[in-house]
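Morning, I've got a small favour to ask if you have a moment. Here's the protein in full, and shout if anything looks odd to you:
***
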Amino acid sequence: MNHLKLDDVVMNCVVITDLTEQKRHEKTLASERLARLMLEQAGEAILVCDHTGIIIRASQVACQIWKRNLVSQAFDTLSLFYAHSYVHSLEQPELNSAEILSSSKTPFSIRTVLDGETVRGLEVDLETSDGQALNLILNARPLTDRDNHFRGAIVILTDITRRKQTEIALKQSQTQLQQQLAEIENIYQCAPIGLNVLDTELRFVRINQRLAEMNGLPIEAHIGHTIRELFPNLADQAEQLLSPILETGEPCLNVEINGETPAQPGIQRTWLESFLPLKDGDRIIGINTVCEEITDRKRIEAERQKAEEALRQAKEELENRVLERTAALNQTIQDLKEAEERITVSLREKEVLLKEIHHRVKNNLGIVSSLLQMQIRRVPDPQTNLILQDSQNRIASIALVHEKLYRSDDLANVDLSQYIQDLTVYLFDSYNINSSQIRLIVQVENVHLDIETVIPFGLIINELVSNALKHAFPGERSGEIQIRLTQSSSKVNQQQTLVLVIQDNGLGLAPNFELKKTKTLGLTLVQGLVRQIGATLEIVSQEGTQFKITLVKS
């Protein structure tokens, strides 16, 4: 207030300034600062939008979720929920912000918020720009002016991702726990041994199927009843064992109990039982029982002991008999050793004698062969000489067998491979055959035959090879003679099959040749020898002649 004086008139001058707008502005600034501070300090994502959906304020947490400043020149709108949360659920993913906000298909009722309605407790699944999945609870309410006109909305997002993950983990854990409990219950009921739980009054609280079968009563007949009520004849034994456990908490293990149950009345049975205290902290609330019936085991054990005693007595008796027989056996062994030595000496002498016999037979046959050779020189008739030479060759084939025997360590069997080689070489030399004109091919497996079979075999080979050398290649004709001997075994009847094939590529037999009508000594001799050893003979005359002898030996 100012005082003014004019011509002795004193006046008071008052100047009034209207501060209403200033105060209102200051109040608005204070509110702005408070709101900004609250948004910065808020632990939740808070978005404030105008009536068109443009975000005008955002808390620090909201900016962290979307990885950018939501209040900027970019003018983010509530359509950002569409961009990161529901893009896959809309049919038109290319809508712009204005179209999204006006669309009836916008997510979590954005349209509802912009229409001024309140949204409470809506769960929203959000995927951030970097691919992080979030679970949020959305609450929204409209902002109005003094005239109750809609000016915007405030959206509060509470991150419940960890809570949802915890709930999922808890649910999975509960599911696993239920599965484990079901498995434990299944194991409990299917266990091959008896299991039960007693309370402190020795009443059955739980029992598995195996123990119920042992007791001869269904499971439900046990529950709530004491041992004395169900099995009075076993009650004294059981109470004597179980009472100390309830008092001391010490287990009682591997106790044998004998008695009867309704399962087999009148029959004494034996069980091996263990009793363990069931505790809740330090307090004993019952007893766990593990029961295995060992009636059969005890019976088998008794039988085993009885058998062992019988075996022990038999062993002692046997030892006595052994001691009595040992002296006699020692004498017998000594006698056998002496007899074996005598037999060994005798066998050596017989082997020497047998070798000497084979040697002398071979020498005697050699003398006969020499006599035939002398006769051949004295007889001028070529036909007679040829007959004598055939006889000489037959004798040579037999003599060769005896030579192989006395030169071998095995006096019972002859190696056919070497025998056939030596015999054919002898025949080629005997008939003065040029090996470049008639080629000999010998393919013989490692086969050994006894003397009763090898001599006929040798004579057969002698006749057939001699026949080929004399008749298959007349004049200067060349060719080849093949000798093949194979052996095979049958796993079914343990038989061995020998197949001897002698073939040439010479002139072959006459077209009208019949083996049964032949009068030649050689082929007649071959037929007889084949029958003698129990073999079969097949003849094929095509581009030469083939003789196939098959012998089956057991």
Notes: Residues 413-553 form a domain with the Heat Shock Protein 90 fold (CATH 3.30.565.10).
